[in-house]
Every structure is written in C-alpha cells, then in structure tokens.
Write a structure and sequence with these properties.
The chain crosses the membrane at residues 47-69, 81-103. This protein is mostly helical and 120 residues long. It has three helices and two strands; from the N terminus they run ααββα. It has one domain (23-119). It has helices spanning 22-27, 31-68, 82-119; strands spanning 76-77, 80-81.
Length: 120
C-alpha cells in the first residue's frame, strides 16, 4: 500500500495580484465600477418608475371613476363635493405617503449597494 502524496503547484510563491475594493473601482471609474453604478441607478430608476406608476393610476383613476359612476359627481361629503373631498383627502396624503415610501426604499437600496461594495 502506498502512502499519501501531497501535490502542490510550483507557482505557490508567485506574486498575487492585489485585490482592489469595489469602492476603489467606482472611484477610479473603471468598467467594473461603471457596472456597479449602473446597477444602483437601474434599481433606483425602477423604484421611481413604480412609485410614479402607482400614483398616476390613482390620479388618472379618479376621473375614470367619476366618468363611470356619474352619481358620485353630485354626492357631497360633509358639505364638500365628493370629487373635491377625494382630491384633498386622498390624493395629497397619497403623494406624501408615496414620497415617504420612495425615500425609505431608496435609502434601503443604497444601504444594500453599500453592503455589496464593502463585501467585495
């Protein structure tokens, strides 16, 4: 029976290429840095597009609602016409909530990006 033999590469003492952190790639605007930045920008753009789409659907959905249900146009809510009450009571608070959620998610995306860059 033969004993174990250790096999090693003759290049074990070869100089290794220094590993650059991803933040340096971004700072030096290398191709890899551009890929990282494009990834972050694409994520933030998708988020902005989603928030704008949701808000646009609500804003454009109200006139459609009043077109399809004409009885709602003449309804009053505490002496205020329902369309005006919905604009004041639904649209503006929805804009504020949408903006708050957008900022919160955008900051979360940036934290994930920062974690990704620091891990490299």
């Amino acid at each position: 029976m033969k004993g174990r033999v250790t096999v090693t590469s003759p290049r074990t003492a070869a100089a290794r290429r220094p590993r650059y952190p991803a933040s340096r790639e971004i700072d030096e605007q290398t191709r890899l840095g551009e890929v990282y930045m494009r990834s972050l920008l694409r994520t933030q753009f998708r988020l902005a597009l989603f928030v704008c789409t949701v808000l646009a659907c609500v804003v454009l959905g109200l006139p459609l609602l009043f077109l399809l249900a004409p009885d709602l146009r003449s309804a009053d809510l505490m002496g205020v016409p329902l369309p005006w009450a919905m604009l004041a009571g639904l649209i503006y608070p929805l804009f504020v909530v949408g903006a708050w959620l957008y900022v919160r998610q955008a900051e979360r995306n940036e934290r994930h990006f920062e974690d990704l860059v620091e891990r490299q």
